[in-house]
Amino acid sequence: MGAKIGFRPAPAPTVRADRDQVVQVVTNLLQNALDAVAGRAEPRVTVEVRPHDAHQVCIRVIDNGPGVAPELRARLFQPYATTKEHGTGLGLAIAHRLVVEHGGEIEYRDAEGGGAEFRVVLPVAGPPLDRRAA
Ligand SMILES: Nc1ncnc2c1ncn2[C@@H]1O[C@H](COP(=O)(O)OP(=O)(O)OP(=O)(O)O)[C@@H](O)[C@H]1O
Ligand SMILES: [Mg+2]
Asked: Where are the beta strands (DSSP E) in 54-115?
């Protein structure tokens, strides 16, 4: 059975960012979430967008799968960390790099009631102009 996907956008300011790269980040998180809930009883994935504070917007991808394996957490965003037979382990490493290049942050936490929650916070102002100073 297919997963139920919910999209909950709250009114939020426009973020200055590379659209394709933000789509790539959300796609990687969404694909992982769908992988994680596949075969579970009531598979559900939710994507939320809302203001984080006056200067940042928060995107959350939440699923009701098993959550990230504890032994993987320390290197979750490093390349080649995977528990999937055919995974590259690059999805989160790429997402991490793109978010950091935008001056943002990405983090994992266990979702309320089990499952995984990935949270991306992006500055409304966009990437730092001088990356060497970032
Ligand atoms: N939503 C999630 N729930 C549970 N585990 C997750 C979730 N997202 C990521 N993981 C864990 O993190 C690992 C790394 O994810 P990442 O996207 O970097 O690579 P991958 O999904 O294994 O490979 P690829 O992205 O190439 O398909 C996964 O193999 C999985 O163990
Ligand atoms: Mg992946």
From this structure: 56-63, 105-110
Residue 28's SS3 state is helix
pLDDT digits 0-9 by tens, 96-121: 999 999 999 999 999 998 999 999 99
Q: What is the pTM of this model?
A: 0.95
> Is the distance from the beta carbon of residue 27 to the nearest atom of ligand 1 less than 6 Å?
no
Q: Which atom from ligand 1 is nearest to the alpha carbon of 36?
A: 3
How confident is the model over 10-49, as pLDDT tens digits?
999 999 999 999 999 999 999 999 999 999 999 999 999 9
Reduced to 3 states, what is the DSSP secondary structure of residue 40?
coil
| Residue written as token pair 């939710």 | 46
Q: How far is the CA of 46 from the centre of ligand 1 (A)?
A: 17
Is the CB–ligand 1 distance for residue 68 below 6 Å? yes
Strands of the chain, DSSP E: 4-9, 44-53, 56-63, 105-110, 116-123
1.10.1370.30, 1.10.760.10, 3.40.228.10, 3.30.565.10: which CATH number matches 26-127? 3.30.565.10
Residue 111 in contact with ligand 1 by CB distance below 6 A: no
